[in-house]
Amino acid sequence: MKTHTKKPFNPVALWTSPSIVMLLCLTIVPLLMLLVFSFMDRNIFAGQPWPGWTLDNIIRMVGSDTFWRLLGKSLLTAAEVTLLCIVAAYPAAWAIAKVVKPQNRSIFMMVVILPFFTSQLLLIYAMMNLIQSGGLLLTMLEAIGIQGETWLYTNKATILVLTYEYLPYMILCLYSSLEGIEDNLIYASLILGASKGKTFTNIVFPMSLPGLLSGILLVFVPVAGSFMEPGLVGGANGAMVGSMIDTQYSGSLNMGYGAALSCTLLIVLSVIMGLTRLAAARAEKTIGGDME
Predict the structure, then answer these.
(1) What's the whole-model pTM score?
(2) How far apart are CA 253 and CA 261, in angstroms?
(3) Shortest CA distance to 78 belongs to which of 279, 243, 216, 249?
(4) Per-residue model confidence as pLDDT tens digits over 132-188
């Protein structure tokens, strides 16, 4: 005769329940709703009758030259902002992690995260005051005899503001990886005759790839879908795909078409991030080591 023994109560399952519920309610359910809304022919939140099902939103999106043009522009802008953040963040993160004395690192990290204590909208307006005609930056340049043109209401302004906003994320991600690299590894590489460039490509860069990938994820994805910055500083020609999606929800009240555009953007970004992860894994394997 078989006896069934009761499994002891595991409190871990109870503790993780709120996180699982939040994950379902705030991530999985909205994504499923977005997919369902893509096939609706009416906006259920605009006092209209219950919508029917249609493929017109998908057909309209596929044939929209404006959407694909703005999508390409958004991806290019995201790539430029991400590259600028990487170039600017590596020296800053390295300096904080390896050059600054340990007792002073918290001060520099506080400076990095200081913009997070301010509203994002206020940061945008602060940057607009700097780069506009008669602003602080152009006034200082004119004071030393340099005549500069305002970048406000241009694509350059959009890239500048987005880089300014998301640079701290890249610095924090790279800092977390660079701080974990043992100084002895770097010293040993230099003592054995490797140049600083070789040390970076063979030791520092491979070991900082996890942080770099996290930084790319935190910068590229939100920048590609941004709509507030292009609308405020980009001018008449500054619209990106996020602006088009926002217009469908807040202006045209075409929820189905906006959901179809959002789903397509999400799929494209997921594919790009997957390819980036694969390329980074192959690069690190070629250089040496395996990514966790």
Answers:
(1) 0.84
(2) 14
(3) 216
(4) 877 777 777 777 776 667 778 888 889 999 999 999 999 999 999 999 888 888 888
Domains in the chain, CATH or no CATH each: 76-287 (1.10.3720.10)
d(CA 242, CA 250): 12
- Write the pLDDT tens digit of every residue in 60-118: 999 999 999 999 999 999 999 999 999 999 999 999 998 888 888 889 999 999 888 88
Q: How far apart are CA 21 and CA 62, in angstroms?
A: 35
Record the tokens describing residue 18, joined without a space: 């709120």
Six token digits for residue 183: 């100084």
